[in-house]
Predict the structure of HTH-type transcriptional regulator CmtR.
Amino acid sequence: MLTVAPDIEVLARFGRALADPIRCRVLLALREAPAHPADLADRLGVSRTRLSNHLACLRDCGLVVAVPDGRRTRYELADERLGHALDDLRTAVLAVEADRTCPDADDKGCC
């Protein structure tokens, strides 16, 4: 039986997290600054319930963390290097071919 290397598992988890446009928008928003879920939902134009599901996915993937902030919870990227990775990935993809779309873009799978 073939054992998957930990690096491959991490990259696959990151890819699954990025597979949904809302999760991408959440990550890009949190790259700018930490935010409370209600503020993120308003900013992204999605329901709080839907955003909560995506935040749970991103949290389970280890990409974001929930930080107690008084009576509220603030979300932020789990590591500042993720922001740099998102910037690098975005610019690399745009540099290759910005007019391409993924044939599986409708896949709504979660981590």
User: Anything to note?
Assistant: The first strand starts at residue 64 and ends at 69. Helices lie at 6-18, 21-32, 37-44, 48-60, 80-97.
